[in-house]
Amino acid sequence: MSLLAHRVGAVLLAIAAMCSAAVAWAQAPAPAPAPAPAIVAPKPLVVEPAPYPADAEGDESVLLELLVTEDGHVEEASVKEGREPFASAARAAAEKWTYEPAKRGDRAVRARIRVRVDFHPPQKAAEEPPPVADLPAQPKKPAPPPVDEVRVRGVRQEVGTTTLGGSEVRQLPGAFGDAFRAIEVLPGVTPIVSGLPYFFIRGAPPGNTGYFIDGVRVPLLFHFGVAQSVISPGLIDHVDFYPGGYPARFGRFTGGIINGETRAPVHKSGIHGEYNARLLDTGALVEAPLGNRAEVLAAGRYGYPGLLLRLFAPEARLEYWDYQLRASVALDDKNRLTLFSFGSHDYLATVDEDTGETEGATTIRFHRVDLRWDHKASKNTRVRVAGTIGYDETRAEDSGVRDYLAGVRVQWESERSRTLTLRGGADVLYDRYDVLQQEQPSGDPADTDAIPARNEVTAGAWIDAIWKVTDRYELVPGLRVDYFANDASIVGTTAQGSPGGAAWGLDPRLASRLRVTRALTYVATAGIPHQPPSLPGTIPGFQPGQLRAGLQKAVQLGQGVEVALPLELTFSPTLFVSNYLDLTDAITSCGILSERGDRPDDCASERVRGRAYGFEVLLKRPLTKRLSGLVSYTLSRSTRQTRATFGQQFPSEIASEFDRTHVLNVIGAMDLGRGWRAGLRFFYYTGRPYSDRIAGIDIPPYNVRRFPAFFRFDWRIEKRWRISNDAHVSFVVEWLNSLLKKEAVGLDCDQLPGRIVDQCKPEEIGPISVPSLGVEGAF
User: Fold this and answer.
1) DSSP H helices in 28-139
2) Is the dihedral of CA 52, 57, 59, 64 positive or negative?
3) Which residues in 453-466 are b (16+ Cβ under 10 Å) and which e?
4) pTM of this prediction?
5) What is the pLDDT of residue 617?
6) How far apart are CA 412 and CA 223, in angstroms?
């Protein structure tokens, strides 16, 4: 079946390539596309003249290069010509300027412009006749500095990805200003439980989704139980979400990919940053320049949700913290070094109110240190070389697991011509997994067959090409190869309980984009990713080690269109199908399989098959607009295969444990003026499936019943006061699940006399409701 799956995947990729090429060929005789919208240069709005330095002499002309953002602020100001102290004076003045942003058609875009600032010594006031009565002198408005050059470069968006900007998602009700929390509103994403950001993505369990920060793999994105991300929101520039068919540089996961990119250093004089203080946590981010070429940044957050939790559960103890440290220095115009360190810590326990003893203490933590060198080899070629070390640990009472890791990665991108760009990379990662064992009452060590202590090495290489076949048609073929090995394959011996082994994964990828008209674009993605065995969720240090059974595999296909509508609306419907082969879905194999009486010896490593298919829709207007909104809807079916049980063959395909037919998000937000902004979100999904039971055991037909549907309302209100061009303070009130709705997640069953089938009714939890009241600002 494995060979068959590979062949089927290869055929599907070939068909997708031929279909895309055929459509492109069919479009070739069409009239030449309309010319691209004209680019309008930024126009100065607030341009205060640079003061003449007190210790300077003579005339000077300084040439600056400014990066003007989409909102008209100057994000970067670098000196191209000019001597000190004039250069510093010109740069300091330019950082306070504001512009009407550059535009490509009706859309604001980033632009780099060059302006020249002239300095002349102040002239001593000459004797002048007194002014004529009733004719007061009119102040002379300074002319804006002349623009020498304008360069606008758009950022290419990968085919099949959805990008959320950090500034945009801060307006999203229920996300608490967190870019990663905003993933929940996108089509194809189904939370396990409302309010907790652990997602099934196109039918794949949470453990099959990869999390990355600046390309660095992390074991989790959210603090345990409270759903706040482990990275300061102010540090995130944007989040890229790939539900399937992602680029070749990402691999080793058969579900989706969530990659957060941190923002570049802000080149401003003096210390600047942001802060927030809320009912659940307090955080701050501070950044400062070191001379003209270096910047340092520190951010952190401390959470105290246990204080609020004790009102409902006095015995509970819950706290968390995270940190981010970054230092960056430009060695010259072509080389930059960046040291980035970040980490997270969570603690959960209960306290016996009578004895005061702590029980069930659980600690979850991880740390990463990443040193990267970015080199501009030529005008069209960029290279990054990086090394990463890390530590992961999850401990419950006196037992747990931990992972020491170290890795090196290289990636490059080279624009070979106007129609061809090549990209590639490679990496090697070493993990040392240790099991912190606790003896059983018998005196024997705990069973660690599923997650043994071991050494692991993972290595991979990838390459792809962005080929503009025509002005309308873009093709992105790619290939990735990965090697996974542990213990016996590395050092020649097998650790106790560790089935040493090795496995190869060969992952072809293909994506295409066809611009049918100026407003209509056809997109298609396909890929066959591989992944080692995984658990249902991502927990630091927990990673199954059984490679002898092979890798998990998936065949992912997606086709859709992107439609540009008036009023800056975008409409994106997509059809998708994902087939999962040799999936380690413990939710299924340790759940319904075990309850049918045929539980395997190690259900966590048992393999199952499944698929997901459906239709996704996204209608969006940028949330930074005065009147904005978003509608996302997913109609899907997620299934798993069953085995023959009780000597009979029941239907081989059933709904998966977290199959939800309909998932809907509707969001509206509005700038009310005078610093007020309000937003409302409606969230709805159908209940997950369950089976009838006899004596507590599921009976066929499986998963044909449904829990009741669930919905909730989230809202957000903000009042902002602007203190200066660079400083503001806001008062924010936000509430997730403001109607305190409860959700059915389990069954309460009774065996009644005279009835064969148990009498069951849905059992509700919650309400999971999170109110937030706080102050946030920037300086």
Assistant:
1) 86-94
2) negative
3) bbbbbbebbbbbeb
4) 0.77
5) 97
6) 33
Contact between residue 407 and residue 391 where contact means Cβ atoms under 8 Å apart: no
Phi, psi of 763, deg, nearest 5: -110, 125
* Whether 599 contacts 606, CB under 8 Å: no
What is the distance between the alpha carbons of residues 67 and 44, in angstroms, rounded to a whole number? 13
The β-bridge relationship of strands 257-262 and 210-213 is parallel
With helix as H, strand as E and coil as C, how does 614-678 read?
EEEEEEEECCCCCEEEEEEEEEEEEEEECCCECCECCCCEEECCCCCCEEEEEEEEEEEECCEEE
- The single-letter code of the amino acid at 131 is P
Mean pLDDT, the chain cut into blocks of 10 residues (779 residues total): 38 37 37 53 82 80 86 81 82 85 76 86 56 47 54 62 77 84 90 86 93 92 79 90 93 93 82 91 93 92 80 78 96 94 92 77 94 94 97 89 96 94 97 76 48 89 96 95 81 49 94 94 96 87 81 96 92 96 81 50 75 96 84 96 57 85 95 92 95 87 92 95 89 94 91 86 88 91
**Nearest alpha carbon to residue 246 among 528, 504, 481:** 528
CA nearest neighbour of 657 among 197, 206, 229:
206
CB 598 within 8 A of CB 570: no
CA-to-CA dists, residue 376 to 123, 412, 600, 734, angstroms: 45, 10, 54, 44
What is residue 23's predicted lDDT score, i.e. its pLDDT? 32
Residues recorded for the chain: 779
Instruction: Please give the C-alpha separations between residue 348 and each of 38, 302, 395, 637, in angstroms, as whole numbers.
Output: 57, 14, 11, 36
Are the C-beta atoms of 66 and 112 separated by less than 8 Å? Answer: yes
Side chain identity at residue 547, one-letter code: L
